[in-house]
Design goal:
Blueprint lengths: L6 E6 L2 H9 L5 E3 L1 H9 L9 H14 L4 E4 L7 H13 L4 E5 L18 H14 L6 E6 L7 H14 L3 E4 L5 H10 L4 E4 L15 H7 L3 E4 L2 H23 L12 H7 L2 H11 L4
Parallel strand pairs: 1-2, 1-8, 2-3, 3-4, 4-5, 5-6, 6-7, 7-8
Helix pairs in contact: 1-3, 4-5, 5-6, 6-7
Length: 286
């Protein structure tokens, strides 16, 4: 929060993706609620993931890495009292911050059509509850608004400033449509600004793509890249399994080691050596 420059926070959805992000030197990672719903349930991000599943999954991810992990609290799963419970439980499992959004429930992925938002006053109450629920001053709250789609960017900024006054530490206006929209949010809100980028997505994302340097020049503080790792994982699985299917159909051995990581690289990523050393340390002489 206090470091200069812009921070890139890749989207993650499980322990392995979190370890990969950390191993490559990223300073933090963001749990993508959409990616968790996609990977854990095999369903689109339209409100199927519940609080218990979210908290349990966040616990495992936060336990896996040492870098800060940013959680997705969706709408808080109800009213202000539910938000209090959501923040309390997520803070307890070790994530560093949480995003709460002002969509109606069931929420939708920010880049889907048909979004609607709750009254701004109701969201203010939720942010106040979130602020009251946290016990660690270093645990941060990110307020998200989806008001640009049903209204306009001016309404998004009006809401974000209300949420900051209510206790939010960071802000995010989803699905902005232009450079001018991003600059308007950065210039007119009173907290660090997040932006989502759809890098490497084949279909053109809702928000235009800009380089990290361009975003920094606009005044963006955090860049989340939620869809990159899930898209890459699906493509990798399709290619590797396509090779297996070809081998099964032809009956011939087809070796494509370039499509996977090696066994040692994989076990190193998981920290197997550490567990082997622990096993030896506690083994009896017999």
């Amino acid at each position: 929060m206090e470091s200069p420059g812009i921070t890139v926070s890749p989207g993650i959805y499980d322990g392995i993706s979190a370890r990969v992000v950390e191993s490559l030197g990223f300073e933090m990672a963001t749990i993508s609620g959409a990616a968790v719903s996609n990977s854990r349930l095999g369903k689109p991000d339209v409100g199927f993931l519940d609080l218990t599943e979210n908290v349990q999954h966040a616990r495992h991810i936060a336990d896996t890495v040492d870098i800060p992990v940013h959680a997705d609290g969706d709408t808080g799963y109800g009213n202000a009292m539910n938000v209090y419970n959501t923040v309390e439980r997520l803070e307890q499992v070790g994530v560093a911050s949480v995003m709460l959004e002002d969509q109606d429930w069931p929420k939708r992925c920010g880049h889907m059509e048909g979004k609607s938002v709750i009254p701004a006053k109701e969201m203010v109450e939720k942010i106040e509850a979130a602020d009251d629920a946290r016990t660690d001053p270093h645990f941060h709250i990110k307020a998200r608004t989806d008001a640009t789609a049903p209204y306009d960017v001016e309404e998004s900024v009006r809401r974000l400033n209300m949420y900051v006054d209510a206790g939010a530490d960071m802000v995010f206006a989803d699905a902005l449509l232009s450079r001018e929209d991003i600059e308007y949010v950065c210039d007119n809100t009173n907290a660090p600004v997040w932006v989502n980028m759809g890098y490497a997505i084949r279909e053109r994302p809702t928000t235009p793509l800009f380089s990290i340097n361009e975003l920094a020049d606009m005044g963006v503080d955090f860049v989340s890249v939620p869809r990159l790792i899930t898209g890459a994982a699906v493509r990798g699985m399709q290619e590797a399994l396509g090779t297996l299917k070809e081998s099964a159909d032809t009956g011939e051995l087809i070796e494509r080691p370039d499509q996977t990581v090696g066994f040692e690289e994989y076990t190193d990523l998981l920290g197997l050596d550490e567990y082997n050393e622990m096993e030896q340390r506690y083994a009896s002489d017999d």
